[in-house]
Amino acid sequence: MQYDPIKSSLGRFFNQTIFLRKVFYKLLDLLLLRAWHVHSELRKFFRQNASKTDIHILDAGSGFGQYSWYLARKKKQWKVTGLEIKQEQIDDCNTFFSRAGVKNASFEFADLTKYKNITAFDLILSVDVMEHIEDDVQVFKNFYESLRPGGILLISTPSDLGGSDVKHEHDQSFIEEHVRDGYSKAEIKAKLKEAGFEKTEVNYTYGKPGKISWRLSMKYPIILLGLSKLFFIILPFYYLLIYPFCLILNYMDVKTSHAKGTGLLVKAEKNM
Predict the structure, then answer these.
(1) Distance in angstroms (rounded) separating the CA atoms of residues 167 and 74
(2) Does any domain span residue 41?
(3) DSSP letters spanning 70-122
(4) Count of structural domains, the chain
(5) What angle do CA 25, 26, 31 make, to 5 degrees?
(6) Is residue 214 part of a domain?
(7) Are the CB atoms for 64 and 9 separated by under 8 Å?
(8) For residue 92, what is the domain's CATH number?
(9) Relative orientation angle of helices 231-255 and 220-227, to the nearest 10 degrees
(10) CB 63, CB 54: distance < 8 Å
(11) Which of these, 5, 10, 8, 42, lies nearest to 28 by C-alpha position?
(12) How far apart are CA 251 and CA 185, in angstroms?
């Protein structure tokens, strides 16, 4: 299934007013389990750097800008740069953030296989990006060079244990835009080491509770929206019914260590 047209439709609807855009960001934070895991890890970064005022963060593959919004509003002295390859999303985010009065975040065009900003960032965030890029090792090398010593790279991406809803060798990815179905722990650790990262931590996300939540909150609604935009009308009622269950499942997934999972949360640190 092509996910980008559905994302574009959602973006156009929620971009009608500043209020709707803020509601959209809040819904993404509540519904997307990966956001729960990413926010949990980001809160650790906030605590560790609470006294610093010169933090520079890169949102590599910023999309709708929801993570840049979350980061920029935590500390107004911190600077957030969002990178995207789709010019319409760059223009959209720059316009919205300006209208919303957020001055410490900006967005620009970049191909991550070519982008470097030597020792510029304390944190690089990459959420649902690496599964779209063929030359991933080059991107990891660019990330490494762009981090300051002691800087952190945080990645959320599908695993090879059913990520992208691929359960068997010949299955097709649920999202057609993916160039890989997911990483194994060993593969992504090896690629990050090749890029220069010596300290890496890789944990499974989307364990048993998360997989159920993902189907209820994301897979089934996306399938319905792919069939007809008329399902936009019934979607709020659908979420009112199922979200209490998803809330519990998401909480369980974040608070539990998983022996297996369809997602990976990866933390890599550049040596001092």
Answers:
(1) 38
(2) yes
(3) HHHTT-TTSEEEEEES-HHHHHHHHHHHHHTT--SEEEEE--TTT---TT-EE
(4) 1
(5) 100
(6) no
(7) no
(8) 3.40.50.150
(9) 160
(10) no
(11) 10
(12) 23
User: Model's pTM, two decimal places?
Assistant: 0.88
CB 60 within 8 A of CB 83: yes
| Alpha carbon distance 203, 159 (integer Å) | 10
How do residues 78-128 score in pLDDT, each as one tens digit?
A: 999 999 999 989 999 999 999 999 999 999 999 999 999 999 999 999 999
Q: What 3-state class would DSSP assign to 37?
A: helix
Residue recorded with tokens 């935009």:
229
Angle of helix 33-48 relative to helix 231-255, nearest 10 degrees, comes to 50
DSSP run (H or E) holding 220 = helix 220-227
Residue in the structure block whose two tokens are 């835009």: 177
61, part of any domain? yes
Q: Is residue 246 part of a domain?
A: no
Structure tokens of 40? 């949990």
Could you read off the pLDDT of 164-191 as tens digits, one per residue? 554 544 444 445 566 788 999 999 999 9
Structural domain boundaries enclosing 172: 4-207+257-269
Burial of 122-143, coded b for 16+ CB within 10 Å and e otherwise, reads: bbbbbbbbbbbbeebeebbbbb
CB 65 within 8 A of CB 88: no
81's CB contacts (< 8 A; 6+ apart) are 56, 57, 58, 59, 105, 106, 107, 108, 121
Q: What stretches of 129-223 adopt beta strand conformation (E)?
A: 147-158, 199-205
